[in-house]
Amino acid sequence: MIYHLFFKFKTQIKMYTELSEDNLQELVAQNEKVVVQYGASWCGNCRIMKPKFKKLASENDAIPFYYVDAEKLPESRKLAKVDNLPTFAIFKNGELVNQIQTNQAESLNNLFSELN
């Protein structure tokens, strides 16, 4: 029972995390697959896409999803060469696979499908 509770809690942590430290590179290296949303508080499309990103995360709890404030975490921003917001990036085995700038849930889902 205790193991089950621990495992369930740990899975929930992996689902979606807003980074407060500029440590995305470490997290990408530690996980086989990673999905990232780069955004900013002033970005309207970022705010629109954030709930869609969280929903995708909740449907795929085996893969960590991270939200990066691109203005506050510049080193993390460099990993995907972000120049526009919102940007979504997927990493596999420590490497950037692809990234897109979009405000469409369908485009985000298509990007995510590249991880499988």
Write the SSE topology:
Elements: H1 2-15, E1 16-18, H2 24-30, E2 33-39, H3 44-58, E3 65-69, H4 74-78, E4 87-92, E5 95-101, H5 105-113
Parallel strand pairs: 1-3, 2-3
Antiparallel strand pairs: 2-4, 4-5
Protein name: Thiol reductase thioredoxin
InterPro entries: Thioredoxin-like_sf, Thioredoxin_domain, Thioredoxin_H-type-like
Pfam family, one: Thioredoxin
Short description:
It contains 5 helices and 5 strands, in the order H-E-H-E-H-E-H-E-E-H. With 116 residues, it is an alpha/beta fold.
Main sheet specs = 5 strands, mixed
Oligomer: single chain
Q: How far from one another are the termini?
A: 32 Å
Which strand order does the major sheet show?
A: 1-3-2-4-5
Give Rg in angstroms.
Answer: 14 Å
List how many beta strands DSSP finds. 5
- CATH architecture annotation name: 3-Layer(aba) Sandwich
CATH fold-level topology: Glutaredoxin
CATH structural class: Alpha Beta
* Overall number of structural domains: 1
Low-confidence stretches: 1-13
Helix content: 40-55%
Order of helices and strands: HEHEHEHEEH
Pfam family, one: Thioredoxin
Protein name: Thiol reductase thioredoxin
InterPro entries: Thioredoxin-like_sf, Thioredoxin_domain, Thioredoxin_H-type-like
